[in-house]
């Protein structure tokens, strides 16, 4: 959850190769280019790595995650205090936020309906709401005054154990249904507290709660919890206020008789329970981190469910969770190569392009460029057309279709004694992960938070900006932007317009941490000749990407009463 920043976790799997033939020019045109029609692509699975196996076994088994496919069950425990309790209406609203249909929310989606659609019907979540667990203390007495949400995790972990114990005692349920993977741990516990979160507490007249930043929304793991196959215990949990349930709909409540319910925050936290990391950076809120080259960097520009909890999950997140298979471009194909993609929110269409001439490892755990066609419909429609929770200064989603080009560095590494050793061969990876300990384990080395990354400038997922200017760095955050971030907007998306149509490593060199300098011959005459130098961006691995990507055109496709988009792309060897 955007805190304006909080704390969380990770990613992973599912794959495809692409086989292409030549393509032909059509008479349709868009922008300044003719629309080139590519041959239909073919997907083939090549990966056997399962993300849940990786995450659940990392750090000596200290982590755990929801399964990202199939029927998954989780436990929701409303938490009350002596001065804040749950009303029957709020409990009913909470059930809608978790289990309801999109129509029942009178606003957007529930967690269940969102993930059913986002996963292309591959994940069916169901939630059991326990009776409220009431803490005898006042809310202000339960947590200490602190500007650090991490200070609350010990108290919340103890609360979770007590609340689960009370649930088992009262119901006679040993919680085995909530341990779908059978590892002795409840796959996910949601602790939804009945007092306001700290950011809205002061406005609501609760200044004592505003001094306790542990009243926020975050996801964590209790590594001390001991697995119990016969009576599973809680380890992975989300801690969040009831009032996030109304954050995006406060203006609507007085305007209609049917109460609107907002699940944006809970959906974002569920992404963490599935294993996804935050795509924003934590360092803007960390006073001891002062490197302004990276401190205010917003690598995905705010516009993603795992960034500022708006819109659908991006193509890489869906690939990482096994919901889609990308088309993989390999250097032995014939170039220039023209392909067509459908909008990614339909079936997850996207291109995965590793560095030319390299051996792609066949998993989501590698470094590559990813290309998808975004559209402002489906799960994107609400946040594309309506600015979410405007009082909290969230940006509006892209409200035009366009191409997202993203640099992914999801390479896995062994982490030991503050040293990262990359894993190049994943053939024995499951065996290696199974041998992890709390001091020697495997993780994705890059992070969008610089001081959690193998190197500050190595980002897990980094959205390119179509005009070639790297505004997401926010280097002038404090002065030029008057303490307002520069977020992504429609101009970030690639389109057939000349100024926004082409990606190359020379044009986008400043977006990459590593660069090389090349010399280029200039016009010469019999009397003189000269050369010029130019910077070329390199992957974090030091490899040349070796391609350029051009958007030829977008076209609208009408089928019956529905409309969707396709994009034509040409990939050329640099």
Structure in words:
It is globular, with a radius of gyration of 24 Å. The protein has 574 residues and is α/β, with parallel strands linked by helices. The chain has two domains: 24-50 and 287-573, no CATH class; 66-274, no CATH class. The strands form seven sheets. Strands 3, 4, 5, 7, 8 and 10 form a six-stranded mixed β-sheet that branches. It has a five-stranded mixed β-sheet with strand order 11-13-14-15-19, with no helix packed on it. A four-stranded antiparallel β-sheet has the order 12-24-23-20. It has helices at residues 51-61, 88-99, 102-105, 111-118, 139-142, 153-171, 198-201, 207-210, 250-253, 264-274, 315-320, 344-347, 381-385, 429-434, and strands at residues 24-30, 33-37, 70-80, 123-129, 133-134, 185-186, 189-193, 218-221, 233-234, 236-241, 327-328, 337-342, 351-353, 367-374, 402-409, 412-416, 419-422, 440-444, 461-463, 502-503, 514-521, 531-538, 547-559, 562-573. A hairpin with a 2-residue loop joins strand 1 and strand 2. The protein starts with 23 loop residues before the first strand and ends with a strand. The protein is built from 14 helices and 24 strands.
